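Pasting as-is:
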Amino acid sequence: MAVGGLGQLDQQYDGSKLRVGILHARWNSSIIDALVAGAKKRMLELGVKEENIIIETVPGSFELPYGSKLFVEKYKKLGKPLDAVIPIGVLIKGSTMHFEYICDSVTHQLMKLNFELDLPVIFGVLTCLTDEQAEARAGLIEGKMHNHGEDWGAAAVEMATKF
């Protein structure tokens, strides 16, 4: 399996002036907690101040698109606008078509939010066939894979400062 992650950044990005929101689903909490920690760790390494990483939750991955829209609007109204948002969820295939419908809907709606909100919405949703795949992508299985949350944190800083 060749999943290498984001790789090296093309330049050093300074996140010290950014406010980044993480909105995460509460399903699969051990995996979600690791992904959130990975995203936060990487953003801190790139200079985002801890007090400027705002974390809130929604029930599940299906709620991430609308929740992200409300999350961004909430902080804009408070006069503390976000520069990027990372919706984080985990979808694991079960025995019904539920997985396919949720993956497709969430993916398309999160992509559309980039343009509707005019800010980076990073795709932080794992879509896995097994629990083991999700655990590996959250960095929970030693030596198997890295924590994808770190990639999402780096992508948020890059996209919020690059252009």
